[in-house]
């Protein structure tokens, strides 16, 4: 399986991160010495992705300027400054830049620390496991005990073959970890310009074509100013526990 393009969802308002986001777009908020979006870009670099689309809205010129100065993959901008299109609508708007094949989709405000003892990055494993014949979407998932910053419960329940259904409060639910591989056909038949990816999750699950990949390492989501310190402490603790191997934080 080959994936050549990716998108980072970076157009959110970051209202829970105020007052920081009154003058800085949330993807540029720093955690452990680097902007949040840098973790996503570094993971895509390691996965060999050559084209990355980033959607922008709040304080867009600041983010566009930062992206223009970054070396690495070709970065294209999907401009949502006139109107936010939600997670699903944002991807559909960017499809002309992404191509017609499977693509990686990442959230700009979540990332993870790789378990380098496993020998392979999570994104590389996901690309290899994505089977367009049987899957429409392959979601990275995390257990509650390998997450920092998550305040809810589980999102999905995996079966023995990795198929996902919505978590209904019984058994061990897993978190959607803000990274997925999808085939654009999941958007067929949707005409509204603004919609959530949750609509696609439910459609894929109903067709038995929504699958999960259990990530290795530690997952972090940063939604408030207080969460920055929590994430930095978790990174330091994980690195301390796994000293001896490469421990760069990466989404």
Automatic annotation (TrEMBL):
Lineage, broadest ranks: Bacteria, Pseudomonadati, Pseudomonadota, Alphaproteobacteria, Hyphomicrobiales
Organism superkingdom: Bacteria
UniProt keyword annotations, A-Z: Nucleotidyltransferase, Transferase
Organism: Hoeflea olei
Signal peptide range: none
Annotated protein name in UniProt: Mannose-1-phosphate guanylyltransferase
PANTHER family named in the record: N-ACETYLMURAMATE ALPHA-1-PHOSPHATE URIDYLYLTRANSFERASE, NUCLEOTIDYL TRANSFERASE
Molecular function terms from GO: nucleotidyltransferase activity
Domain Nucleotidyl transferase: 6-234
């Amino acid at each position: 399986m080959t994936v050549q393009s990716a998108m980072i969802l970076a157009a959110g308002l970051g209202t829970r991160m105020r007052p920081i986001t009154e003058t800085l777009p949330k993807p540029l908020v720093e955690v452990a010495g680097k902007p949040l979006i840098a973790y996503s870009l570094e993971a895509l670099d390691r996965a060999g992705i050559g084209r990355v689309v980033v959607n922008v809205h709040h304080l867009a010129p600041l983010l566009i300027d930062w992206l223009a100065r970054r070396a690495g993959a070709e970065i294209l901008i999907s401009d949502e400054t006139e109107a936010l299109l939600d997670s699903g609508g944002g991807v559909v708007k960017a499809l002309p830049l992404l191509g017609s094949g499977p693509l990686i989709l990442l959230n700009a405000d979540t990332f993870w620390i790789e378990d380098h003892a496993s020998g392979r990055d999570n994104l590389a494993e996901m690309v290899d496991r994505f089977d367009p014949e049987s899957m429409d979407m392959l979601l990275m998932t995390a257990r509650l005990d390998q997450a920092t910053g998550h305040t809810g419960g589980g999102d999905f329940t995996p079966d023995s073959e990795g198929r996902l259904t919505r978590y209904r409060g019984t058994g061990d639910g897993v978190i959607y970890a803000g990274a997925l591989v999808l085939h654009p056909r999941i958007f067929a038949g949707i005409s509204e310009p603004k919609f959530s990816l949750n609509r696609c999750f439910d459609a894929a699950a109903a067709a038995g074509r929504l699958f999960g990949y259990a990530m290795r390492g530690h997952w972090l989501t940063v939604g408030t100013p207080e969460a920055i310190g929590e994430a930095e402490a978790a990174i330091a603790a994980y690195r301390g526990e796994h000293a001896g191997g490469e421990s760069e934080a990466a989404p």
